[in-house]
Amino acid sequence: MAAGPDPAGRRVLPDLVQRAPDPGRGRRPHHLARAGLPGPGPAVTAGTVAEPVRRRVCAVLVHDRRVCLIRRQRSAGDQHSLPGGVVEDGEEPADALHRELLEELGLDLAVLPVSPQLRFVQDQETERPGEAELFRRRHLVYVAHLPDHLAAAVAAVEQDDPDETLVVWLPAADAAALHLYPDVRAVLGQAARPDATTDGPLLLPAMTTTSYQWR
User: Fold this and answer.
1) Which residues in 23-50 are b (16+ Cβ under 10 Å) and which e?
2) N or C, fewer C-beta in 10 Å, the chain?
3) How far, rounded to the nearest angstrom, does the alpha carbon of residue 99 sit from its chain's CA centroid?
4) What pLDDT is recorded for position 74?
């Protein structure tokens, strides 16, 4: 089926899987491979250069309509990041997400009753202070709803950061008003709804030098 706009005008790829592979699986879904998501591939959103980019996996962790964010203090103001990190060479995105959340938050995705779902994809090509070249990433954004006992077990500070950066839980509406990385503000409320559909992944507008300021 060809890609087409959803009612809000955003582009949807209906042939991609609606649920991410289990973190313990190493098999590559062929339909994701065709779309270029598991491996470095050309950018798919507007405003980016069609060259290979490094992928970053991250998660919207939801509990009681609140989302989990890492609050990083910057000279230009706080930046709230979705927990996650860069996919290593030869690593599957779901495995990278499992590893990163275990390292950062002490959260083991393998015990979730429902595996995290790949819901959004966003390309980034922005400037960073003190760097001459544009900073480029492809963000694979998963969504996971945590039961009470797992939400309570999430670390209060980032475990692999010597500065012990704060981990905060905020109502989705409040979080959507903050400076977020990646810039998922427009869809954060949608992702946090317990009755949200699993259609996707949805391609979000790219983060560019004109639309996003790095902090």
Assistant:
1) beeeeebeebeebbbbeebebbbeebee
2) N
3) 14
4) 76
Please determine, for residue 41, whether its predicted confidence score (pLDDT) is greater than 70. Answer: no
Q: How far is the CA of 52 from the CAs of 30, 73, 74, 101, in angstroms?
A: 19, 30, 29, 25
* Distance from the first to the final alpha carbon of the chain: 39
Measure CA 178 to chain center.
16
Euclidean distance between CA atoms 114 and 19, whole angstroms: 9
- Alpha-carbon gap, residue 201 to 132, rounded angstroms: 32
Is 122 within 8 Å of 140 (Cβ atoms)? no
Averaged pLDDT, 57-78: 91
pLDDT in tens, 68-111: 999 988 777 788 999 999 999 999 999 999 999 999 999 999 99
Asked whether the beta carbons of 119 and 143 are under 8 A apart, the reply is: yes
**How far is Cα 59 from Cα 20, in angstroms, rounded to an integer?**
12
| Closest listed residue to residue 172, CA positions, set 152, 186, 151, 157 | 186
pTM (two decimals): 0.76
Half-sphere exposure of 136 (CA within 13 A, CB side): 17
User: How far is 51 from 174, CA to CA, in rounded Å?
Assistant: 35
Question: What backbone torsions phi and psi does residue 30 show, to the nearest 5 degrees?
Answer: -65, -30
